[in-house]
Amino acid sequence: MKLKLSSSVIPWLILLTCILLYLYSSVLSFYSSTANSSFIRLRDIRKSPTCNFSEGRWIRDPSYQPIYGANCPFHRNSWNCLRNKRENMRNINSWRWVPDSCSLSRIHPVEFLGLMRNKNIGFVGDSLNENFLVSFLCILHTADEGAKKWKRKGAWRGGYFPKFNVTVAYHRAVLLAKYDWQPTKFPGQDGLKGIYRVDVDVPANDWINITKFYDVLVFNTGHWWNHDKFPKETPLVFYEKGKPLLPPLKVSDGLQVVLNNVVSYIEREVLPRTVKLWRTQSPRHFYGGEWNQNGSCLFDGPLDENQLDLWFHPKNRGVNKEAREVNHLIQQALQGTSIKLLEVSHLSEFRADAHPAIWLGKQDAVAIWGQDCMHWCLPGLPDTWVDILSEIILNNLERG
Ligand SMILES: *[C@@H]1O[C@H](CO)[C@@H](O)[C@H](O)[C@H]1NC(C)=O
Ligand SMILES: *[C@@H]1O[C@H](CO)[C@@H](O)[C@H](O)[C@H]1NC(C)=O
Ligand SMILES: *[C@@H]1O[C@H](CO)[C@@H](O)[C@H](O)[C@H]1NC(C)=O
Ligand SMILES: *[C@@H]1O[C@H](CO)[C@@H](O)[C@H](O)[C@H]1NC(C)=O
């Protein structure tokens, strides 16, 4: 449709583009001499400022296939669904996300790394950000086969792309705040073994000192704020300025306080030119029970839009409702700040079919851990997150 329409307006668009380019380049020549600026501005013109990549639908497109395979050196075994022979991978990866009000192009790894030359991109958060990182590294690896694993103090894992002098890395900090195990000195009747002390006002060591190293930072947290990870024998106890917060906070209130503190730390410490993003919660798809109650995700296609509320709306009390609850807190914490939302929840809610499920690459993994309906197969859904992330990065980099 777009193509047909454009045939009559093309001459006008070209003229308009030339005028804009002329104006931009004359303005730019005053302020900047970087060679790639006008390219970035061109991308700006192309994108409508109101575009919401998160509103759209999945369409089946058998010609659409991943740009990396099972041999990417950055894979983690349990997410390497091709190697683990997950059923249906060809179908799973033949769905394309199509936003309603704009086009989402696939990342072009060579072009992207060229524009990112001498820059660094950091992810901070839990294993769902690591899942995201691995997707990103595997995609970028196709543009620089000489990519090396990158490791330094505080960095959990990452990659360095020597052709472009770009580092992309992940810092594991599941709660973002510092937390430490403290065994109880007085074991009592209540079964309490100790507490995890969370200092709500102190960022975790793994990222406290890295904020100046990165040109782009992508934060997340959410999957550890529950009683599975911290049951009543080993609960979270929240401290501020070194003293316990009283009365003790519920887990969700603790999350809110930590979000507010982390957000103000980022606003204070991260350089203004850094692109700051917060990825919204990645939804889980446990069907028929929690992860430890035989919850499963053996689906062979995306959910329908009209099923989503049943799965995820908190009022329906389903096992996967926490994604929207966490998002609500994130939105509140980010209001009025310079940190932008990287919205991936809605488009991901559809993809009950895209988790590793029982194909985890280890014989007894399902018996011990249950199905994995939380992380995503790679190649897979996070590749679409990468497309959106790369658009946002390129659109924001030079705006300051
Ligand atoms: C974009 O769309 C998603 C999904 O409908 C919605 O949750 C979000 O609030 C929208 N974002 C903006 C900035 O309007
Ligand atoms: C690589 O990038 C860093 C910034 O991330 C810069 O300090 C360094 O000088 C660059 N190295 C080369 C060889 O250009
Ligand atoms: C972070 O940097 C500060 C100031 O340089 C230093 O005192 C602190 O020990 C560092 N923390 C970590 C965990 O590296
Ligand atoms: C899970 O399935 C196994 C095998 O079918 C069964 O023995 C067990 O009771 C189930 N557990 C729950 C919590 O439903």
Which helices and strands, and how do they pair?
Elements: H1 2-31, H2 37-46, E1 56-60, H3 89-92, E2 95-99, H4 109-115, E3 120-125, H5 127-141, E4 148-149, E5 157-161, E6 166-172, E7 177-183, E8 194-203, H6 205-208, E9 216-219, E10 236-240, E11 243-244, H7 251-269, E12 275-279, H8 308-312, H9 322-334, E13 340-342, H10 345-349, H11 365-369, H12 382-396
Parallel strand pairs: 3-6, 3-9, 8-10, 9-12, 12-13
Antiparallel strand pairs: 1-2, 4-5, 5-6, 7-8, 10-11
Helix pairs in contact: 1-2, 5-12, 7-9
Bound molecules: 2-acetamido-2-deoxy-beta-D-glucopyranose (4 copies).
How would you characterize this protein structure?
- This protein is an alpha/beta fold and 400 residues long.
- The protein has helices at residues 2-31, 37-46, 89-92, 109-115, 127-141, 205-208, 251-269, 308-312, 322-334, 345-349, 365-369, 382-396; strands at residues 56-60, 95-99, 120-125, 148-149, 157-161, 166-172, 177-183, 194-203, 216-219, 236-240, 243-244, 275-279, 340-342.
- It has a seven-stranded mixed β-sheet with strand order 4-5-6-3-9-12-13, with helices on both faces. The protein has a four-stranded mixed β-sheet with strand order 7-8-10-11. The chain has a two-stranded antiparallel ribbon with strand order 1-2.
- α1 (2-31) packs antiparallel against α2 and α7 runs parallel beside α9 (322-334).
- It is globular.
- Bound molecules: 2-acetamido-2-deoxy-beta-D-glucopyranose (NAG) (4 copies).
- Residues 52, 54-55, 343, 346 line the site of one 2-acetamido-2-deoxy-beta-D-glucopyranose.
